[in-house]
Amino acid sequence: MSTAAGPPIRPIAIIGGTGPAGMGLALRWARAGETIIIGSREVARARKAAAAVQERIGPEARVSGMENSAACAAADILVLTVPFEGQASLLKKLKPAMTDGSILIDATVPLAASVGGRASRTLGVWQGSAAQQAAELVPEEVSVVAAFHNLSADLMAGDEPLDCDVIVCSDDPDAAQLTRELAAKIPGVRPIDGGKLENARIVEQITALLIGLNFRHKGRAGIRITGLPPSAYR
Q1: Pairing between β-strand 77-80 and β-strand 62-67 as defined by DSSP bridges
Q2: Is 111 exposed, middle or buried (0-12, 13-18, 19+ CB in 10 A)?
Q3: Quick check: is 107 in a domain?
Q4: Which residues contact 94 (CB under 8 A, 6 or more apart)?
Q5: Is residue 34 part of a domain?
Q6: E strand spans, 47-116
Q7: What is the pLDDT of residue 9?
Q8: ∠ CA 85-19-189 to the nearest 5 degrees?
Q9: Which pLDDT does position 211 carry in this prediction?
Q10: Any idea what the CATH number is for the domain that residue 84 is in?
Q11: For 9, which DSSP code?
Q12: Rounded distance, CA 61 to CA 31, Å?
């Protein structure tokens, strides 16, 4: 007697995933049952990060570590969590490894601190935003989504539900919907359709505001959008 195979597991590759933001997303999604590949410039560092997530969650966690290009080639859902100064050069390097139809979820924020300035303000980006810059650097067949800019890495690394909305911006409705579904897998997060990719510049700037607020008030603030109907959070 034969049994039908279940749907294939669709891995999520977190590129530059050994930093606080990448590790927080890896932890939360692995805990939700997703298959995670943590990417890094160094395989050993990626594997060490994957082992740390595995230790936190237990043997049921599906998480591995690879060099960034290998991680990129092994998945069609890519999440970019690197400092702004490394975004362009890394995407140029990874471009040949990206498969047609992939989705790149970009969480990059062009903070002035990335190039020696103050983290409480953003840099001007010629394309309009870091996400729009990413869209110019990846193959045409890759959809770019801007999301996960405003989540506290410290809170993501913990075990408690978050109290934060994730604004998702993209010119590809299907890619945006998938990203919102991933955001909803993080307890306490509400995903919101933020419209076109060009709106990412506004969302990126909110991150700088939050950093300033958290520094001033010694907190770990996120954002909540009020007054929308329940359908807005689906």
Answers
A1: unpaired
A2: buried
A3: yes
A4: 15, 68, 69, 72
A5: yes
A6: 62-67, 77-80, 103-106
A7: 66
A8: 105
A9: 85
A10: 3.40.50.720
A11: P
A12: 7
In a domain, 6, yes or no: no
Cα–Cα distance between 91 and 88 in angstroms, integer? 5
174-187: per-residue pLDDT in tens? 999 999 999 999 99
Write out the DSSP string of 192-208: EE--SGGGHHHHHHHHH
Tens digit of each residue's pLDDT (9 = 90 or more) over 16-57: 999 999 999 999 999 999 999 999 999 999 999 999 999 999
pLDDT the model gives residue 208: 86
- Tokens of residue 8, six digits: 């294939």
Position 125, amino acid: V
5 vs 55, higher pLDDT: 55
Structural domain count of the chain: 1
6, pLDDT greater than 80: no
Distance CA 48, CA 25 (A): 16
pLDDT the model gives residue 232 = 87
Residue 149 lies in a domain: yes
pLDDT at 140 over 60: yes
Place of tokens 């060099």: 67
The closest alpha carbon to 82, from 90, 71, 74, belongs to 90
Instruction: Measure the N-to-C terminal CA separation of the chain; round to a whole number of Å.
Output: 40
Looking up tokens 């740390």 gives 52
pLDDT of residue 12: 98
Give the helix/strand (H/E) hosting 95: none
Distance, in Å, from the CA atom of 166 to the CA atom of 193, rounded to the nearest integer, reads 9
What is the crossing angle of helices 200-217 and 130-137, to 10°? Answer: 140
Domain that holds residue 112: 12-233
